[in-house]
Amino acid sequence: MKKLFIAVAFVAALIFSVAPSYALNSMPDDVPGRQPLTPFFLVAKAGLNTGGVGLDTLMVIQEIGGGATQYKTKGYLHMIVRNYKSVEIVNVTFPYTPNEVKAFGVKDILRTYLSASELASIEVTLGGTVYYTGYIDWENTLESNNLVAFMYLIDLPNGWAAANTAPVYEVATTQLGYHSQQTWQYLKSGATLFSYLEPFSPAGLAITQNRERGISAPAGTTNVASSFRLMPRYFLKDANAQTWIPIWSSNNKVLSGTTINSYSFTVYLYDNAENVISKTINIPYELNWLDIRTLLATSGQWSAVTGGWLDIPFPAGDPGRGNTQWLAYSYQTASSASAGASWSVLTAVHREAGTIS
To answer: Where are the domains of the chain?
Structure first.
């Protein structure tokens, strides 16, 4: 019995002494991380000053590390709201405590901190409705994987409520054994200090996949993935339904030798019957919106399509297959005169990187 007790105690000691686990580097896994990202927000312009009416985006950030003193400040979140070109428009700091859940309504943030001209600079029209859009960085003062996050798109009076986990960057340094392209130097706002985080980039993901297979990452710092693509689903229940695809990346794209923002290439639109057509899209900014209806014909076979998927294969060379980071979502909605017949869905878009070897 004594030997059994010692064995059980030894196993228990191992369990409670294990360091926090890390997920797949360069993937927005559902695991705790250091720095949350709201990769997009969408707020109805008409609903900005009308309480609960109109679409709002909510961000919930949860501290899961515990420790410290309950109800006492453990760290700080530096909230940086940016427009679709990554220009900073709001910069505010909030304290957080152990095990706290903090909820933020973007409608309230915009109403509190933005001027009329700043609001006008973040307008986008989707499905004939004007919205405010942008994204939010959340800088965590603790160098610890102690946060998880969630985002919600809510318009309850009109029957829309959708949610997904929000990406959170994990700490990643070369000292922890990561390849140089598996770590990213995030320059903190207003400072000269860096946070070292995982990148959601094709090159980082390709190297991770190689290392998972026991293949050494190629030497050098300019390697790119052999391929990279996004694969969003779309669904159009009827003429009132929409699918909007926000695509977030880590930088703006400028035509060589100019100041013109442009990054256009060919994509392939499939319907549920496996028919396919090619289209050209342009996604030059840090936050881009694709309205699937703008890719469909207004008459003929493709005007009646109700569902399918979009193959977005990035052309060779940076920014598509290099160190530029890419995340995307599919926001599908159906509208009806009755809120009970309306619905919305938010799904993360699949990402695929070809390995370098």
So the answer is: 23-169, 220-354
CATH topology of domain 220-354: Hypothetical Protein Tm1070; Chain: A (2.60.290)
Strands 129-140 and 75-82: antiparallel
Instruction: Decide if domain 23-169 falls under CATH 2.60.120.
Output: yes
CA distance 124 to 97: 36
Check for a shared fold between 23-169 and 220-354.
no
The tokens of 306 are what? 């109700």
pLDDT tens for each residue of 163-220: 999 999 999 887 888 877 888 888 766 655 667 899 999 988 888 887 777 777 666 5
Q: Write out pLDDT tens, residues 53-68.
A: 799 999 999 999 998 7
Per the CB < 8 A criterion, the answer to whether 138 and 27 are in contact is no
Say what the pTM is. Answer: 0.89
Q: How many CB atoms lie within 10 A of CB 126?
A: 19
Backbone φ, ψ for residue 110 (5° rounding): -65, -45
